[in-house]
Amino acid sequence: MLKSLTYSYRDRRRRKRDFRRLWITRINAAARQHEVPYGRFMAGLRGAGVDLDRKVLADLAVNDAEAFARLVEVAKAT
Q1: Of 25, 14, 9, 37, nearest to 61 (Cα)?
Q2: Whole-structure pTM value
Q3: How far apart are CA 42 and CA 60, in angstroms?
């Protein structure tokens, strides 16, 4: 019983870490298709004042390539 509580506590935190890694990987792959590395893409978005979190950006990269491409253009222009 105690081990299961320990594992559940640990894995709730680990799940957040794993999803963040997945989102970053998806964003990086989509941004590199537009010839922009992840770091430059995120810095460009911050400079342009676009406040989207990684979860939303990863969803756009997978499900709405046109919107993501427009975000890449905004990041490149900054």
Answers
A1: 25
A2: 0.90
A3: 14
Residue 20: is its pLDDT beyond 90? yes
- Give the pLDDT score at 33: 97
What is the C-alpha separation between 19 and 6, in angstroms, rounded?
A: 20
Give 78's DSSP letter.
-
Mean pLDDT of 59-70: 97
Whole-angstrom distance, CA of residue 8 vs CA of residue 43: 35
| Two structure tokens written together for 56 | 């939303």
Instruction: Report the length, in residues, of the chain.
Output: 78
List, as one string, the DSSP characters of 23-76.
HHHHHHHHHHHTT--HHHHHHHHHHHT----HHHHHHHHHH-HHHHHHHHHHHH
